[in-house]
Write a structure and sequence with these properties.
- By secondary structure, the protein is mostly beta strands.
- 9% of the residues lie in helices and 55% in strands.
- The strands form eight sheets. The chain has a 22-stranded antiparallel β-barrel. The protein has a five-stranded mixed β-sheet with strand order 3-9-10-7-8.
- The longest helix is centred in the middle third of the chain and has 19 residues.
- The protein is globular, with a radius of gyration of 28 Å.
């Protein structure tokens, strides 16, 4: 850990005397707005509780922090949050060591969902969907299971991104221009105000990003990670005077993203690859995202302490990715995946806010249709061992069989084929849920929740394959008519059979699941400034059907469940100048969905329920006010994960043993913190984050996938006149050079972002 980062964290700890006031979720945030964290309302739990009244471990990023740390997209928040982090570039993230797509590479359902203004965003589009942070009111990362409240796809947590609402009382305008030394340009504008004062307000926002990129493709002479994106949003807010109390908000959001792949490998077979980043693939690695979101929320008070609301969302998203799978000038592996989904949700809620009973009761409906269309050129390694075994079974001596199989693999090291697939899916979900708090005394409260969740899903698959190479000539091995000549001809027919076996006519399988997800707990307010809570709840990830590509069959798998035990502390100290919040947890996880291989070739795999594991850890969040010129904040997280057992089904040939290994990207320690300083019109921020070493793979030999820990420090200095701000910033100020992922034995890796300097200008009227 660098001395500067130690000093940064020490300053946040020494600031035990004074918490940073956070910006409340507010329709008109300004760089100088600073209210107590008590005023921040947690939206994700749907009960409108303050942070200090919420036992869930929640990390909230406010507009002020977004500005001061120069955060542009949700991935920037992942790495600055305890027990949260990116996995493979922007393609995913983990919460408490659990990847949002699952930890065993199996299963179709996600473990975490990102919501933007109430709309769930498909995981396939998160690398470039509507998750940029311009004109954002609040970002919440709810760590730990949210199955009772959120239900579907929330076993590990949930992320709630809320954009700035339209005001019916005040007119405002905002703009920002950003430039970096790596030729990245961002232009952002927003404006809004009342169309009918006190009744109807409108807000419009737009952001255009243009990034030249930093990774050059030497083969096609272009930047592999160049980016162009456009994010447009309109929000309408109606509070009609004729119906006092009625509140209607409508949202429309359109995103178009054309840029590099969701993560970008760099060739590391050169001495200076951190400074001179390049690749040699003969195909561009690209990612295209098209997202259109519409949302409507209607709320109305129906009595003292009772509020009824309806939230409807529709999301049409397409994510197309094109990748050069081999990373070489040869045309061996090219993947094209088109993921398109239409998602509709409807939620009815009754919020209760009484002197003794508070919480929420609700009903939920969800429908998602779409799926994957793939059109790829694939090369399967020639199975030398399988060929040698067949030759031995046909009467060849062991040595001769091995030599002939090896010679054949030299002539045809890869089996090239054109692979197309259509994998439609439909998921329908309905649920009834409740999450209530009953005050037994002024200090003691009981917490209880229950969700009945019903899911129906249907997964389909149709695949077509065609051999696209040249089979070895048997006469190159032996004279026609000899046993070796005949054997090579038989091997050729076997290769064509392998290709043919991977093709299949359309097939589909429907599954139904019902889950009861209880939650119980107790909360104790020891004083107005100190409270504790303990909760137990069950979490759930649905089952489904998995295609085995080599056998072209659909194989069912069952749901997985976890029991989660969590204790929390919420506290204020020194007259409210320091806030200290903490959570500790233990999770027991069973029937985990993992991938098993069955020996025919590299594509002979499907999802099975085969693992059990546990994890435990905690988070600590501190906010402090040092004096009238300095605020400080810090967060720390630790998680320890372990597969307890791994039992594969009969017939599996998988060599990976998960028992005893850790989850991938489960950092044992994460730290982040920052200091804000302001004197007159000058305002500065220094922040840093540390992630400990992680394994990027699973299994008994995961030690060879270990990547070291890294520390990243950032800074911003601005001159604020009240109406406009000019500023300079540095990302990765100390030029930390680190690897995010590198496959064993492959000279390509995902690298961390380089040192970057930039400048910007903001307008707030």
């Amino acid at each position: 850990m660098t001395p500067i980062f130690r000093l940064l964290l020490a300053s946040a700890a020494v600031a035990i005397a004074m918490p940073k006031p956070a910006v409340a979720q507010d329709q008109q945030p300004s760089p100088r707005d600073a209210t107590s964290s008590d005023d921040i309302v947690v939206i994700g739990e749907k009960s409108n509780r303050r942070v200090q009244d919420t036992p869930t471990s929640v990390a909230i990023t406010t507009p002020d922090r977004i500005r001061q740390e120069n955060l542009l997209q949700i991935q920037d928040i992942y790495d600055r949050t305890a027990n949260v982090g990116q996995t493979w570039g922007a393609s995913g993230f983990s919460i408490r060591g659990i990847s949002n797509r699952g930890i065993g590479a199996g299963g179709a359902a996600d473990t975490t969902t990102v919501y933007v203004d109430g709309a769930p965003i498909p995981a396939q589009a998160l690398f470039g969907g509507p998750t940029d942070l311009w004109d954002t009111a609040q970002v919440e990362i709810l760590r730990g299971p949210q199955s009772t409240i959120q239900g579907l796809n929330a076993l590990a947590g949930a992320i709630i991104l809320t954009t700035r609402d339209a005001s019916t009382t005040q007119t405002s305008a905002d703009a920002r221009v950003l430039w970096t030394d790596h030729t990245a340009r961002t232009l952002s504008v927003a404006a809004g105000g009342p169309l009918i004062r006190d009744e109807l307000g409108l807000r419009l926002s737009a952001e255009r990003r243009a990034d030249r990129g930093i990774v050059r493709n030497l083969t096609i002479d272009d930047f592999a990670d160049a980016l162009r994106s456009l994010n447009l949003r309109a929000k309408l807010h109606w509070t009609p005077a004729a119906l006092p109390g009625l509140d209607v908000q409508a949202t429309a959001n359109r995103v178009r993203r054309d840029g590099g792949y969701m993560f970008q490998y760099v060739d590391v077979d050169q001495p200076n690859y951190f400074a001179d980043r390049h690749v040699r693939g003969n195909q561009p690695d690209r990612g295209y995202v098209s997202s259109d979101i519409a949302g409507l929320t209607i709320g109305y008070p129906i009595g003292t302490g009772l509020h009824l609301s309806s939230t409807t969302s529709f999301n049409r998203t397409t994510a197309i990715i094109v990748a050069d799978g081999d990373g070489t000038p040869t045309d061996r592996l090219v993947f094209l995946n088109d993921n398109s989904f239409r998602t509709w949700t409807e939620e009815l809620r009754l919020n209760i806010d009484g002197p003794r009973l508070s919480g929420v009761l609700g009903a939920w409906a969800y429908s998602r249709a779409g799926g994957l269309v793939a059109d790829s050129r694939v090369a399967v390694p020639t199975p030398v061992g399988t060929i040698a075994g067949l030759l031995r079974a046909g009467g060849f001596p062991v040595t001769t069989a091995s030599q002939l199989a090896t010679a054949y693999a030299r002539a045809l090291p890869w089996i090239p084929l054109h692979y197309t697939a259509d994998q439609p899916e439909r998921v329908r979900n309905a649920a009834l849920f409740g999450d209530l708090r009953l005050r037994l005394t002024d200090r003691l409260s009981l917490l209880a929740g229950l969700r009945y969740d019903h899911e129906e899903n249907r997964y389909g698959a149709q695949t077509d394959t065609a051999f696209t190479g040249q089979l070895p000539d048997p006469s190159a091995f032996a004279t026609p008519g000899t046993p070796v000549y005949v054997a090579v001809g038989a091997i050729n027919r076997g290769v064509l059979a392998i290709v043919a076996d991977a093709a299949a006519a359309p097939a589909s399988r429907a599954r139904r699941f019902d889950a009861f997800l209880p939650k119980v707990g107790v909360s104790m307010a020891w004083s107005p400034d100190l409270s504790t809570a303990f909760t137990v709840q069950r979490a759930y990830r649905s089952g489904g059907s998995s295609q085995n590509p080599a056998r072209a069959t659909l194989v069912p798998y069952e749901p997985e469940y976890s029991w989660n035990y969590e204790a929390s502390l919420r506290s204020h100290w020194w007259g409210g100048r320091l806030s200290l919040n903490a959570n500790v947890f233990y999770v027991d996880w069973r029937q985990q969905q993992v991938v098993a291989y069955f020996g025919r070739n590299a594509y002979d795999y499907n999802t099975v329920n085969a693992a059990a594991s546990h994890l435990y850890g905690g988070e600590l969040e501190v906010q402090a006010r040092i004096d009238r010129h300095f605020d400080a904040y810090g967060t720390a997280g630790t998680v320890h994960t372990r597969y307890d057992s791994f039992t594969l089904p009969t017939g599996s040939t998988s060599q990976v043993e998960l028992a005893g290994s850790q989850f991938p990207y489960a950092a044992p320690l994460t730290l982040a913190g920052g200091i804000d300083g302001h004197a007159g019109r000058w305002r500065a921020n220094v922040n840093g984050n540390y992630r400990g070493p992680v394994f990027t793979d699973i299994g008994a030999q995961q030690g060879r996938s270990r990547v070291p820990g890294r520390t990243v420090v950032n800074a911003r200095l601005g001159y604020d006149t009240g109406g406009w701000t000019a500023f300079a910033f540095a990302q990765n100020l100390l030029d930390a050079r680190y690897v995010q992922y590198q496959a064993y034995g492959v000279q390509r890796a995902l690298l961390g972002d380089p040192q970057t300097f930039g400048a910007g200008w903001e307008l707030h009227l």
